[in-house]
Amino acid sequence: MSPAERPRERAFAVTAAAVLAVYNNAVGRHEWHNRWYVPLNACATGAVLAAAGASGLTRADVGFGPGSWWPGRTGTRWAGAAAVGWLLVATVPATRPVLRDKRSAGLDGRGVAYQAAVRIPIGTVLWEEVAFRGVLQASLRRVLPTPAAIAVTSGVFGLWHLRPTWQALRTNGLAGDRGQAVARVGAVTVVMAGGGGLLSWLRERSGGLAAPIALHLVTNSGAAIAAWAVRSRQAGRAGT
Fold this sequence. Notes:
Helices cover about 75% and strands about 0% of the residues. By secondary structure, the protein is mainly alpha-helical. It has one domain (about 5-240).
């Protein structure tokens, strides 16, 4: 690597981290973003991949190299564990309240199918995994040791969830007063950063994006399906 390339690579890594830290919290608050969520985020995925290529990152660097399309044993096990976890949450009465979310309470089976099969896989999982575990993590690895690259990627992933967390708390009546809201948003942000760390570790362990994509997809889509199954069962009982 020539001395002239290093500042450019640092600049790209810093810019990528800054843009991702702000993007979801700034753009995501607009109603038009929610309305056009899937196509906008699909375009954003293409844009970030194009920027990565222009910066010198290869397909293998961002997790799409040869042989990287299978999550492997570790990724499959984590995804399977997530699926079993949601099954248990939906089955055990004491844990079912975890699935209550007023944002999705009005969705019917068709709406949940769209969420689980289109909106979440394309608009959320693919976009976030390409942006974070793909481009950001790869760009940081060029200028930082791998553990530091994972730590920064995970921290930015936590910040990415600030606005969605606040919105979810407020919608579900869980925000409380200002102090409680700050504490709860902060706690969820830390949890999300920890989850991002696991996804980043899977990216490094498996050598591609398939493993973190599989776990992320089962976690998010599984939650939507489990919540719908519980609501449908409860509605059926109420109707008898």
